[in-house]
Amino acid sequence: METLRGLAIILMVLGHVIGGTSRDGLQVADDSIWRFSYYALQYIRMPLFTVISGFVYAYKPVSRFTTNSKFIAGKINRLLIPLVVVATLFYLLQYLYSRN
C-alpha cells in the first residue's frame, strides 16, 4: 500500500509540474512525450490518489481517538502548518518575481 501511495503522489506531482497546457507548469510543447504522458495518465492520477487516500484515512478513523482535540491537533500538524508555510513562501516568491 505504501508503494502504491508513493506512486500516486508522484503521478499527482508530475501532473501539476507538467501542467495542463503548453503555457502551464514546465511549459513543455504539446507534441512532447511529457505532454503525452500527462494526457495518458489523466484518468488514473486523481482516482488512484483519492482511493488510496480513503484507505489510508480509514486506517485511523476518528473513533480511535479518545478526544477530538488529539485528532484535530494531529490534522493541524500535518495539514495546516505546511499549508501556511508553503503558501507564505509561494506568495513571497511570486511577489519578488513580479517586481523584477
From TrEMBL:
Protein name in UniProt: Acyltransferase family protein
Record keyword Kinase present: no
Transmembrane parts of this sequence: 39-59, 79-97
Pfam short name (any one): Acyl_transf_3
Entry-linked InterPro entries: Acyl_transf_3_dom
Domain Acyltransferase: from-to ranges: 2-97
Swiss-Prot/TrEMBL keywords: Acyltransferase, Membrane, Transferase, Transmembrane, Transmembrane helix
Molecular-function GO terms, alphabetical: acyltransferase activity
Native source organism of the sequence: Mucilaginibacter sabulilitoris
Statement: the UniProt record of this protein carries the keyword Transmembrane helix: yes
